[in-house]
Amino acid sequence: MTTTSAVITALGFCWLGMVLAISFLEAPLKFRAPGLTLQVGLGIGRLVFRALNTIEIVFAATILIAILFDPPPVGAVVALMVAMATLIVQLVVVRPRLTRRSDAVLAGRDVPRSHSHYAYVALEVLKVIALLIGGIAVLAHGVS
């Protein structure tokens, strides 16, 4: 395995682990905590997801640079590009909608539930699958 393949694999699986831990474990469990208000939960969620998204951008940029220097197999590149494109859609299209809604909730307005949460979760599932496939493909290529 080349150093570049090792970097791509490590960052891809770290990215995968962070998404799984935050989006599918921390986020839903947070709202089950006794005494936690919706406003406090949203405030915490905004901070956590801002940090996650920042790290995701760094990981995606580093993986992209590594791919440019030493491309893994095409299937791995496609899967990793799907993960990166998914992140871009989340940040540019879905997150602004979620932010507007959470701003309204934090301001005390009564707003209906947002379907954007479902879109964000669907994109998270797609990203998880893409990262898993990409990481496995790079890893399998590196050990063959």
Automatic annotation (TrEMBL):
Record's keyword annotation contains Transmembrane: yes
Instruction: Answer yes or no on keyword Membrane.
Output: yes
Q: Where are the transmembrane segments?
A: 6-27, 47-69, 75-94, 118-140
Q: Which UniProt keywords apply?
A: Membrane, Transmembrane, Transmembrane helix
Domain of life, source organism: Bacteria
Q: Which protein is depicted?
A: Transmembrane protein
Q: Which organism is it from?
A: Nocardia fluminea
